[in-house]
Design goal:
The chain is of the alpha/beta class. It has 2 domains: 205 residues, 3-Layer(aba) Sandwich (D-Maltodextrin-Binding Protein, domain 2); 92 residues, D-Maltodextrin-Binding Protein, domain 2, CATH 3.40.190. Strand 6, helix 6 and strand 7 form a beta-alpha-beta unit. The termini are far apart.
Length: 332
């Protein structure tokens, strides 16, 4: 009996000696994202698949609807990281000391859906295209698509038509002839016999849709923290792109969607659109800058890419072989 007790005590002592002398506390951070669309998946995966925790963070994800409000929260210090988009560019051009450091989605995250009698881009001439509102990502997508198809902007009527569900109803009722939709609306559209004219992933048009931004002062004073965050973010992206089972789990949870078909098609639509490594497309940034300049008096259309985007963290990780290591270690 005494021998067994001594043995247990010795085993416990050995295990105690094997423990690290110092276990560092996890760093608390708050990161925001701007909505519930599938293109938000990168930051969801970083959190839900455990990569933020793996890289030393006790992270809280908060949804702040609207890019402008999200940028304001970042600027005030209420959040440390923001997954946003073009409104952050506008804030930077307006003098906000923010900077973009990585990007997960560089293509417009939707398809152009039309009536079934519109089978090719030239059939859009003389038609009404519904967008969420003027001045947003939908409108720019239409402008760039028309340019790519050599269709004059004046040859179509672009009109505000509200949120996706409202635009789908407008399409069915023929109040509009075409609009931009993504799952689950595209699934419903196909079931109704509407036509998916084009997926923007197959087009040249680029745009910074999901972008990680921080305060410039935070990047300067906490560079290693930002670097660890981008490591976690990148691993989340890679897993989302390559592990369907885990990706479906993330989407089912975050979209709160019980219909397996909708979850599967949403994942299949968005997963290929994520960028690994998470670099921003310079042409997409220039497209956003030109669009903002056309609608903002005094804003410069060119020469501001360096002002809004600092790729040095992603460059360092690539130089260190981090992205190659992630791909190798996954075995996929």
């Amino acid at each position: 009996m005494l021998r067994h007790a001594l043995r247990r005590a010795l085993t416990a002592l050995i295990l105690l000696l094997l423990l690290p002398l110092h276990v560092p506390a996890q760093e608390r951070i708050i990161a925001s994202y701007t909505g519930t669309g599938g293109f938000q998946g990168a930051i969801w995966a970083a959190q839900d698949l455990g990569y933020l925790e793996k890289h030393g963070f006790k992270a809280e994800l908060v949804m702040i609807p609207g890019g402008s409000r999200s940028a304001q929260a970042l600027l005030s210090g209420s959040t440390q990281f923001e997954q946003g988009g073009a409104p952050t560019i506008s804030a930077i051009l307006g003098g906000a000391e923010l900077v973009m450091v990585a990007g997960a989605v560089n293509k417009f995250p939707f398809s152009i859906v039309t009536h079934k009698d519109i089978r090719k881009p030239s059939d859009l001439v003389g038609k009404k295209i519904g967008v969420v509102n003027f001045g947003g990502m939908n409108e720019l997508a239409v402008i760039l698509a028309l340019k790519e198809w050599n269709i004059p902007r004046q040859a179509v009527t672009v009109m505000p038509a509200g949120p996706a569900a409202v635009r789908l109803v407008g399409l069915v009722n023929k109040a509009i002839d075409a609009t931009m939709l993504a799952p689950p609306e595209t699934i419903k559209a196909a079931e109704m016999g509407l036509n998916i004219l084009a997926d923007f992933s197959d087009m040249e048009a680029a745009y910074p849709v999901s972008v990680i931004s921080v305060r410039r002062a935070f990047l300067k004073g906490n560079r290693e923290t930002v670097k660890r965050f981008i490591r976690a973010y990148s691993e989340g992206i890679y897993e989302l792109k390559t592990n369907r089972e885990k990706g479906l789990r993330v989407y089912a949870s975050r979209l709160r969607q019980q219909e397996p078909k909708i979850v599967q098609e949403t994942y299949s639509f968005f997963a290929p659109k994520f960028s690994f490594p998470p670099r921003l497309d310079p042409e997409g940034l220039r497209n956003a800058l030109r669009f903002i300049a056309e609608r903002t008096p005094g804003a410069a259309a060119e020469g501001n890419v360096e002002r809004i985007y600092d790729p040095s963290i992603v460059n360092e990780l690539e130089k260190e072989g981090f992205f190659s290591k992630v791909a190798r270690s996954s075995g996929r």
